[in-house]
Design a protein that fits this description.
8 strands, 21 helices, two-stranded parallel ribbon, alpha/beta, 59% helix, 4-stranded parallel sheet
């Protein structure tokens, strides 16, 4: 049978190269006696390598020879350990994929890998805006978005949606997009029977009656009270919701203070509470309308980008991720792919797992989930995942630290694995860990993080922590008022 291999996955080519170089150097050092080094010193050196890797002393004599022979065995095998990025591993899966997978994904059969899509994103705007200009409904949505955000921020929002095009498309295909932001009636069920929240007071007879009763109660009062009453009465007659709010609320949105001894003060306060409830419902309605508008604008943007790539013969990283997800999860393909992986991979190591994005994990999970409950089936590879959620910094690559928690739960409960926590370091100085402990302790106390334990260090170098000055971003809202390009 073909010898089984170790597959190590990390997130950048540089990290993969460094891991490969370090591994080769270690194996070479283990197999090579240094010039003039006596046997006892060589054995002691190997024993120390086993010790720092957590091997019990009673096993050192047995494993010492194994350690010495690893490098010659690797050279004799003729293939090194696979140390790859997620994308390079996914790309290798795609190269052996059936043509139908590419066709189903709308990808060219002969393609050029687009490692950086920045230029392609810039190029798609002309095509997309042309599509918008030719569609009256899209023109209206686009104009509303620009009015709300300004042109620059509107484009930033659309580019952010485009960056998550795979997740958006999968959610859209599952029918999850349009209802992702609920209608106001979900959170304010007693208002659910009206078309718009303001109708609860301005069109319903009980609501109009309450407002008119309040207006009549205010009219005989002091001058400012009477002015509010007159404004409210006129607003109800004209259906002017903005003026009705002005009559009962301050400019800051708080209830106006009226005399507690005023006749009908209970109605006044009840009306103010109703106005505040309607305003909260309006915020929910505005959020839903913005969400739906963004969804309607994002769909043609994703289609335009896909067509641009198809025209140019490009496949980007998200295409590779989605194709890999299909290969590993679709029952029509996954059996053959998993059989090939079963035959080749015996150990799986994933480094810097906190930088995994949800789709990468879903693809990996689709492979590993095949071993769960498969009594008498193929032996699963050993799985070792290394990560630190508080170091998750690649949100621009769609990394989500919550994926780490999902993977941890799967390995422990699905594969029967263990969770190993490392809170002691040989590298960081006390000053650095002091700052980390303070910041993370505060975050945990505020409920923003969980599971953090105080970190300690072996280092006795004091060290120091420096802060970089903050550079304020330009006021893009103001720039939107003057930019022409």
């Amino acid at each position: 049978a073909e010898p089984q291999e170790i597959l190590a996955i990390t997130f950048t080519k540089k990290a993969a190269g460094e891991m490969r170089q370090r591994l080769q150097q270690w194996l070479s050092d283990f197999a090579t006696r240094r010039e003039g080094e006596p046997d006892e010193a060589w054995q002691a050196r190997l024993d120390n390598e086993l010790r720092i890797r957590g091997i019990e002393p009673q096993r050192w004599p047995e494993l010492r020879q194994t350690l010495q022979k690893l490098y010659p065995a690797l050279l004799a095998y003729g293939r090194t350990v696979q140390i790859r990025t997620f994308h390079s591993w996914f790309a290798a899966l795609l190269r052996s994929a059936p043509l139908k997978v590419l066709q189903d994904q709308g990808l060219p059969s002969a393609y050029e890998l687009l490692e950086d899509d920045q230029d392609a994103v810039a190029e798609v705007w002309r095509r997309y805006l042309g599509d918008v200009a030719r569609d009256a409904d899209l023109r209206e949505d686009y104009a509303a978005l620009v009015r709300a955000l300004g042109r620059s921020r509107a484009h930033e929002a659309l580019e952010a949606a485009l960056a998550r095009r795979v997740e958006f498309t999968l959610a859209d295909e599952a029918g999850r997009i349009d209802d992702a932001v609920p209608a106001f009636g979900t959170y304010y069920p007693r208002l659910a029977g009206v078309a718009a929240p303001a109708d609860w007071l301005m069109l319903r007879e009980p609501g109009r009656a309450l407002l008119l009763a309040v207006a009549e109660a205010l009219l005989p009062g002091a001058r400012t009270f009477a002015e509010c009453g007159a404004k409210l009465k006129a607003a109800v007659a004209a259906g002017d919701w903005a003026s009705a709010q002005d009559a009962l609320l301050t400019k800051g949105g708080d209830p106006r203070k009226f005399n507690d001894k005023l006749a009908g003060i209970d109605d006044v306060r009840a009306a103010q509470e109703e106005v505040l409830a309607v305003r909260r419902a309006e915020l929910q309605q505005a959020a839903r309308e913005h969400h739906l508008r963004m969804a309607r604008l994002t769909r043609p943007l994703i289609r335009a980008f896909a067509q641009l790539k198809l025209d140019r013969g490009w496949v980007d990283m998200t295409d590779i991720e989605r194709a890999a997800h299909t290969l590993l999860s679709d029952s029509g393909y996954s059996a053959a792919v998993q059989e090939r992986l079963d035959a080749r991979v015996r150990h799986l190591l994933i480094d810097e797992f906190q930088d995994t994005n949800p789709l990468q994990w879903q693809a990996l999970h689709a492979w590993l989930a095949g071993y769960v409950g498969a009594g008498g089936g193929p032996t699963p590879p050993s799985v070792f995942i290394v990560g630190d959620p508080k170091q998750s910094i690649y949100r621009f690559r769609r990394a989500d630290p919550r994926v780490f928690a999902a993977a941890q739960d799967f390995v422990v409960h699905g594969l029967g694995g263990d969770r190993l926590a490392c809170d002691h370091t040989h590298r960081n100085t006390p000053a650095v860990l002091g700052a980390v402990n303070q910041v993370m302790g505060q975050a945990q106390a505020a409920g923003e993080f969980s599971g953090y334990r105080t970190h300690t260090t072996q280092s006795n170098v004091t060290g120091e922590v420096l802060a970089l000055p903050l550079i304020p971003r330009p006021d893009k809202a103001a720039a939107d008022d003057t930019e022409d390009e």
